[in-house]
Structure formats: C-alpha cells, structure tokens
Amino acid sequence: MARVFVSIGSNIDRYQHISCALDALSAEFDGLLISPVYQSESVGFEGDDFLNLVVAFTCEKDTGELSAWLRNIEDDNGRRRDGPKFSSRTLDIDILSYDQLVGTIDGVQLPRDEICHNAFVLRPLVDIAAQSLHPEMKTSYQSLWDAYDKTRQKLWPVDFSWQGKKISSQD
C-alpha cells in the first residue's frame, strides 16, 4: 500500500465541491488525514478565490489508476477541460506524492512541482506532514515552508465542516 498526498481545490461552488471530493475519497480509502482548508487568491488568472486543502491516505491503486479515478471525480463534479489551463474550476484534485516515487510514472509527474511553488499546497501539506521529506529534495515540508517567501501568495484559514465535523477554523 502506498502513502499518497493529494491536493484539492475549487473556486466554483467551493464548499459543495470540496465536500463531494472528500465524500468520494472517504468512500474509497480508510483513514483520511485531512488538512485545514485555506482560502487563496487565484494564481495565473483573474478569478474568484479558491479553497484548498491536502489529504493523505493509503492506496492500493497504482499511480495511473489513481490519477484516472481522481479525474473521474473531477468530471462527476462538472470539471470543464476545454478552457484555458489557468481558469476557474469546480474541482481540481492532483497527486502531490505517491510514496517516495520520483519521475513520470503512468503519466503523472511525481512529486508534483506545485509543492514548492504554491503556498496553497505547501502550507496544508505542512499541517499534516510537517516532518515528512519531499521525495526529490529530501527536505522536510516544514523546512520548505520555513524558507518559502510568504509574501508571494495570500493564504488564510477558513471555517469548514464536513460530515458534521469541523475540520478547519479561522481561529
């Protein structure tokens, strides 16, 4: 079984689509580890703010199977793929890491470059795996966050409840 980290983001009907993604993940995988949810400005285009979080779980699917399965969740939630790469979206689920694999595996680049470039990925990853090592850099996510220029992207926690439990708070 592989330890997997995925990022989840939405800027269209955000609370609904994030909840749907969590529902799908919890129906398929046991023991989800869920970060707080953060709001961030859109990156690369003018658009509504996103909600973002990171989820960890163990998985028996290989990277290709998991990638296709996650893509189906996006599609089931109205994800459009015919627009610009940087645009509003109902749901975006990306594999950040799959065990300690490095390289392009089954068409998936591992680890995902976004980890080191976007606060909305790195910060929630630190919340649930601060001492875990980046598979390629062999540096803890906490160390990467400590060195990250936090003035580059605005990010703030938001209240978020899922299945009757508060998983995130502004406090």
Total helical elements: 5
The major β-sheet equals: 6 strands, antiparallel
Q: What is the number of strand segments?
A: 10
Structural class: alpha+beta
The overall average pLDDT, rounded, is 91
As a percent range, the share of strand residues is: 25-35%
What is the straight-line distance between the termini? 35 Å
Helix amount: 25-40%
What are the secondary-structure elements, in order, as H or E? EHEEEHEEEHHHEEE
Shape: globular
Rg measurement, Å: 15 Å
Outline the low-pLDDT stretches.
none
Describe this structure in words.
This protein is of the alpha+beta class and 171 residues long. 30% of the residues lie in helices and 27% in strands. The chain contains 5 helices and 10 strands, in the order βαβββαβββαααβββ. Strands 1, 2, 3, 4, 5 and 8 form a 6-stranded antiparallel sheet that branches. Strand 6 and strand 7 form a beta hairpin.
Summarize the structure.
With 171 residues, this protein is an alpha+beta fold.
Please tag this protein with its features.
171 residues; alpha+beta; 6-stranded antiparallel β-sheet; two-stranded antiparallel ribbon; 5 helices; 10 strands; 27% strand; globular
Summarize the topology:
Elements: E1 2-10, H1 14-28, E2 33-34, E3 38-40, E4 50-59, H2 63-76, E5 92-98, E6 103-105, E7 108-110, H3 114-117, H4 119-129, H5 141-147, E8 155-157, E9 160-162, E10 165-168
Helix pairs in contact: 4-5
